[in-house]
């Protein structure tokens, strides 16, 4: 079984003056331009009313992206098969779009990678270290939560 259901969270380092709802037209613009290479961008949903929910969700065939609260961050969750390196590149491309177009800055020197597949979790830390060339630390917590790693990366 091949592991591809990774999620990547980049925390926003500058506090944008935008409300979550102001990202809706931004994501609609991405859909109109198909701005994220290698992704078929489909729809935007507003879940900002849901406590600890996904916030604003951008749905693509390959992945879901969202900007949410309480800690404002961009989350990229892969749905279709891809390597971790490809997933990381796509997440960074989305972060770069938000930086270039909206002035949003991300703390890319430290980010989270989580696994949405509990059946395949052996050797994940090594795979992440190889793909990111960074220092990987398992984020301990509730065993019912997804397997999450904090990466301190020079990239």
Structural features, described:
There is one protein chain. By secondary structure, this protein is of the alpha+beta class. It has one domain (about 5-150). It has helices at about 25-35, 85-100, 125-130; strands spanning about 5-10, 40-45, 55-60, 65-70, 75-80, 110-115, 135-140, 145-150. An 8-stranded antiparallel sheet has the order 2-3-4-5-1-6-8-7, with helices on one face. The radius of gyration is 15 Å and the shape is globular. The two termini are about 30 Å apart. The model has no long low-confidence stretch (mean pLDDT about 90).
Number of domains: 1
How much beta, percentage-wise?
A: 25-35%
Flag low-confidence runs. none
Strand order of the largest sheet: 2-3-4-5-1-6-8-7
How would you sum up the global shape?
A: globular
Order of helices and strands: EHEEEEHEHEE
Number of helices in the DSSP assignment: 3
| Largest sheet geometry | 8 strands, antiparallel
The span between the termini is 29 Å
What's the count of strands? 8
Class by SSE composition? alpha+beta
Mean pLDDT, to the nearest integer, reads: 88
Radius of gyration of CA atoms, rounded to a whole number: 15 Å
Share of helix among residues?
A: 25-40%
